[in-house]
What we know:
mainly alpha
Amino acid sequence: MKTRGTGGWAALTVFAPLAWGTTYVTVTELFPPDRPLFVATARVLPAGLVLLAVGAVVSRWRPRGVEWRRVATLALFNFGLFFPLLSVAVYRLPGGVAAAVGGLQPLLVAVLSRLVAGRRVRPLELVVGVVAAAGVALVVLRPGAQFDPVGLLAAVAANASFATGVVLSKRFATPANRIAWTGWQLVLSAVMLVPPTVALEGTPSSLDGRAWGGIAYLSLIGTAVAFILWFNGIRRLSVAAPPLLGLAAPVTGAVLGWVLLSQSLSLPQLAGFAITLSAIAYGALLPPPPAPASPVPVSVPVSVSVPVPVPVPVPVPVDFAKVPAWTLSPDNRSRTRSTTTAGDSCLACR
């Protein structure tokens, strides 16, 4: 079976950050204002139920044993923490500032790979990460941008949570049914998010058609389809490649802002575009991780058991005439008396 090259997997994986780049516009234009927990819950719950239904058609797989702990851990970092924190940042920060923090992803993944998985980070990865973050900042940041402390802290925490999910997703073994694997993560994250959503925000009084359209798009396209492709890319690409491909998200968000607001590009922004696109191309061309070595069969010599003849005792004739009479049993004494001399017989009678 012919396998898809690295460039093909990278092209499929980059669809995920392209879809995520539309989050800012979708949330601010279609969702009710100031409801970050509702936005997060509305993303994960429909997507998780749909993926579980589709995964059940593929196979009957579900987590068992230690897999429950792994699925719950990934659900926490990939969705349960990431989506609410990201929604807070989207509501409180301008799109450019929130997107600029996303440029830290390559550096965060490199550092966490070292701390969590013990992976040796090459100096080139750190250099590319710094250059990529600078390129994203040139693209999205503008003079006079407002920095809300809570929103900025939420953006940094969201990206740290997502980077942890990338590292752990690379480390944990993935079952064959990756659709159900992703669906269970989304459903468990919904279980984590529904109680605080109801307690802190309540349910919206009413949702219009635009809001329902935003929920459908953000949940099915921006979450279900996007994360299936994203997790598949994490499994097949180098650990440094997905965060570099993820830089397409802030660039997409900035481009949509310019298109919708009819804004022009300055020279520094064009330079940032070139730097960021170069970093994305570098990530797409990174070689995939080496495949695990298949065990080499070891030939073990088979020992052939040869039957060894067991010696059979052969009866030896006994000359009772030469055996002392006192060593014989009573049954043999009569035989001895008949074959010995008179003197000997007298000695045996004593």
